[in-house]
Amino acid sequence: MSDKTNSIEIQSSVSRFKSIRIILADLYWKNYGLSNFFTERIPFSARNGKAFAEKLAGLYIKTLELKTAEKKSNSDNFIHVYELGAGHGLLSKFFLDTLHSKYPEIYKQTIVHITDNSKLIIKKLRKLSIFKKHSNNISFQIIDAAEPEFNSHELPFFIYSSQLIDALPAYHIEADKKEVSELLIKTTINEDASLLDTSVYPPVPIDAKTIKKILLGKNKKKKLLLAPRILPLLKEEIVKQDIETTSYLSPENKASIKEFISSSDITEKTYFNYSPEIESHISTVSSSLLPEGLYVTSDFGFSQKTGHNTSDFLLAGYCSTSFYSVCFPLIFYLSNKSGLISLITNQDLDQTQDLILYKGSKVTQLSEYFKNNFDTVGYEKISSVLDRISSFNQEMCTLDNIKKELDRLCESDKK
Q1: Rounded distance, CA 159 to CA 286, Å?
Q2: d(Cα 297, Cα 85) in Å, to the nearest integer?
Q3: pLDDT higher at 251 or 389
Q4: Predicted confidence band at 281 (pLDDT cuts at 50, 70, 90)?
Q5: How far is 86 from 138, CA to CA, in rounded Å?
Q6: Which runs of consecutive H residues, i.e. helices, occur in 270-398?
Q7: What does each C-alpha distance from 250 to 245, 256, 257 come to in angstroms?
Q8: pLDDT by residue (tens digit) across 184-232?
């Protein structure tokens, strides 16, 4: 008997960002906020630790040194720096610590706007004692990173983000020079699937039909409690639909995708993520960034190639959270249209890339500095070590084994 007859359909074919898996991931972020970084085992340390913040501060200082004009568009005397999608805020904390200790004069002139689109996260960040000593140099704000709005008197000179762009909603695209399709996601569950519902007492066994009712119902609390055990039971099927006939993409989106593909290096069938939010994000940042300013972001995805020869790499996740692999050539294309210069590292596919978008003229000097300081960041080793430790079973999870893994890190990685 085929899988289809043994399965219950939970959700018919939809765009990836509307799928059950993504809906549950979004629910986690909205309800658990900062705790997701720990409960969902998200390896945030590689791009949010002290060592990387020092490199980021160095890039900020270098960008200021390369600034050709002293006149400012802002009416105050401060340099405005923004972190978009701050999450737990540690990157800004270490960034400010570095400025305070190594560049005290620049520190006095700098205001760091720590932003996130979650009211819950900003509320919690405001209460953290780690920012107390920087209270005169910090502003907490709720900003939608997809279309950030900046006060005309506080326009950004320097912007940074980490694992932000790969969280923006995206469509899965399959393309070659002749045909472009959207890959829709159909979600099912085996008819004989079951689990023990421990959200009630006494716990009760529930079957596949009940799981479907929970997923499609309005009881958010039960979804959140059971999601980590429901997600492994779900099956996803890709349904290909010609881009001309899909109703999920707007005519403007379709035109943008086609323009990008026609300008790309695609010679065979390839897969990538397209996000209208990234398009509006780049456009807004470009128009708001002050002359000679810079935006640096760290995300995982395809660095040089437009996409991959399989759809397996389009989505990744940690426990109940999900992230899209970023098609960086799409960002290059959008940035070029917006008048920004783009530079990027070339790490392995499953590692984080560092990208800078520059609105200045000193490209050669900046490129040399970026290559010398970011191409050899080396912190990808941290995530590899953490992945190995998190995969330990009960027998392997000993202090000696953990120490052996940690000893793989160099001293700068351990900061």
Answers
A1: 11
A2: 11
A3: 251
A4: very high
A5: 13
A6: 276-288, 328-337, 363-374, 380-390
A7: 11, 10, 11
A8: 999 999 999 999 988 888 999 999 999 999 999 999 888 888 888 888 8
Which two structure tokens, joined as six digits, stand for 8? 């219950």
- pTM value is 0.81
Alpha carbons 184 and 19: distance in angstroms, whole number: 9
For 237, residues 6+ apart whose C-beta sits below 8 A from its C-beta are 185, 186, 187, 188
User: Can you give the pLDDT at residue 176?
Assistant: 78
pLDDT of residue 73: 47
Question: Among candidates 345, 214, 352, 358, which has minimal Cα distance to 289?
Answer: 358
Alpha helices in 18-103 (DSSP H): 20-32, 36-39, 50-66, 90-102
195: Cβ–Cβ under 8 A, 6 or more apart, which residues? 205, 206, 211, 226, 229, 230, 233
Cα angle at 349 between 346 and 355, to 5 degrees? 40
Residue 22 has pLDDT above 60, yes or no: yes
CB 351 within 8 A of CB 343: no
Q: What distance in Å separates the CA atoms of residue 182 and residue 184, rounded to the nearest whole number? A: 6
Residue 174's nearest CA partner among 401, 327, 336 is: 327
Neighbours of 70 (CB within 10 A): 5
d(CA 103, CA 158): 16
Beta strand 294-302 pairing with 352-358? antiparallel
Question: If you compute the radius of gyration of the chain from its CA atoms, what whole number of angstroms results?
Answer: 23
CA separation for the pair 328, 343 (Å, rounded): 10
Mean pLDDT score, 1-12: 75
Q: Is the peptide bond before 202 cis (omega within 30 degrees of 0)?
A: yes
Q: What is the pLDDT of residues 299-358, one digit of tens each?
A: 888 776 656 667 877 887 666 678 888 989 999 999 999 999 999 987 766 578 899 999
pLDDT tens digit sequence for 59-101: 999 999 998 544 444 545 899 999 999 888 889 999 999 999 9
Scan for tokens 């800004």, then name that residue: 92
